[in-house]
């Protein structure tokens, strides 16, 4: 048995706090936006 621990980013943690269907919608929008330009990155702004 192999156990793998994954460190979630703050953005991933944010998405996991949302209920469906909002979570799926936000993740889809993120994927669509990031696919438009390689210079666009997902970052948490303070």
Structure commentary:
- The chain contains 2 helices and no strands.
- The chain is an all-alpha fold and 46 residues long.
- The N and C termini lie far apart (40 Å).
- The model has no long low-confidence stretch (mean pLDDT 91).
SSE blueprint:
Blueprint: H1 10-16, H2 22-36
**Major β-sheet annotation:** none
Helix content: 40-55%
Q: What's the tally of helices?
A: 2
**How many beta-strand elements?**
0
Low-pLDDT ranges: none
Report mean pLDDT, rounded to a whole number: 91
Strand content: under 5%
- Structural class category: mainly alpha
Reading the helices and strands in chain order gives HH
End-to-end Cα distance, whole Å, is 40 Å
Tertiary shape: extended
Output the radius of gyration.
13 Å
Describe the structure concisely for a colleague.
The protein is mainly alpha-helical and 46 residues long. The protein has helices at residues 10-16, 22-36. Helix content is 48%, strand content 0%.
Based on the model shown, name its key terms.
46 residues, mainly alpha
